[in-house]
Write a structure and sequence with these properties.
By secondary structure, the protein is α/β, with parallel strands linked by helices. It contains nine helices and 14 strands.
Length: 294
């Protein structure tokens, strides 16, 4: 079945707000292009690039009621310009995902690179990616916040659950940083396929379980990281409590500042007070599971 692609022209000042609305309405992939039509990727250190207009392209699954999404964007997001809709065959967009992501340096340890990169960096742990558009390449603030936390805080030998794994970038990064084992969960077949391919590319497939939530085995890990929309996070408190050992860390991302209070209330009983990190309007929350539940 064909997927739905929406294209919207926005100004740089509108970008973060409109991108948030698209992710909240279920966009599986978002890409940006400048007014010259070239894809926008992370600029080199010290380089500043300015676009007066940005073409934002969002990809939605076949089951999406795309007309309802368009109406919502016009009313709630107050998009006044033209919203262009196209149908994209699944094979076509999967092939398009193989575009190379830019090389990125995360924290003090991690480096993200395209699948065919020959770059060697002895002082960095390299994670290579096949997919350069959807599910997470490290460029979006919600993903980079998670990667920065992992880079700074992951303990070697940890067991990790990546819930809503997308490309598998978070689980694979933990394994490359010497986590002992990881579990990657997603409801989208394309995400599971992407994670499998990227795990094999990075040589960690033997330490990574990949599957849908209902097949997740009973486990108690040291770290859960979940970079998904806030509405879904609200419904996962029991799952995360069961899967995280007492004293283990929970990392939640994909949250807007306006959603923080509601999320923290949902988790207050089973988890200690959350700490917060922010980037470009997005928030990462971190808390430990209580050892003695009240």
């Amino acid at each position: 079945m064909p997927w739905h692609e929406l294209q919207i022209n926005v100004t740089p000042n509108e970008l973060t707000r409109i991108e948030a609305f698209l992710r909240l309405t279920g966009a599986e992939a978002i890409s940006l292009a400048g007014n010259d039509g070239h894809e926008i990727i992370e600029p080199a250190p010290g380089e500043t690039v300015v676009w007066h207009s940005i073409r934002l392209t969002a990809l939605f699954p076949p089951s999406t009621s795309i007309n309802l999404i368009k109406d919502y964007l016009c009313t709630a997001a107050k998009i006044e310009g033209l919203i262009t809709e196209h149908e994209v065959q699944e094979k076509d967009w999967l092939d398009g995902l193989k575009r190379r992501p830019s090389i990125q340096y995360i924290g003090k340890q991690l480096m993200l690179a395209p699948a065919d990169s020959k770059l060697e960096y002895k002082n960095r742990t390299c994670v290579k990616l096949n997919l350069g558009l959807a599910f997470g390449t490290g460029e979006h603030p919600t993903t980079s916040l998670c990667l920065e936390w992992i880079d700074a805080n992951l303990k070697p030998g940890s067991q990790v659950l990546d819930y809503g794994c997308g490309s598998g970038i978070l689980a694979i990064s933990t394994l490359r940083l010497k986590a002992s084992q990881a579990w990657a969960v997603d409801i989208e077949p394309q995400a599971l396929l992407a994670t499998k391919d990227n795990a094999e590319l990075n040589g960690v497939e033997d330490r990574l379980w990949i599957g849908v939530p209902e097949n997740l085995p009973n486990l108690q890990v040291d770290l859960i990281v979940s970079n998904i929309i806030a509405g879904t996070l609200e419904n996962l408190t029991e799952v995360f409590k069961q899967c995280l050992r007492p004293g283990g860390h929970l990392i939640l991302s994909g949250i807007l500042e306006s959603q923080v209070t509601k999320i923290t209330r949902c988790y207050a009983k089973e988890f200690k007070a959350f700490t917060k990190q922010q980037k470009e309007g997005w928030v990462l929350l971190c808390a430990q599971r209580r050892k003695n539940l009240p």
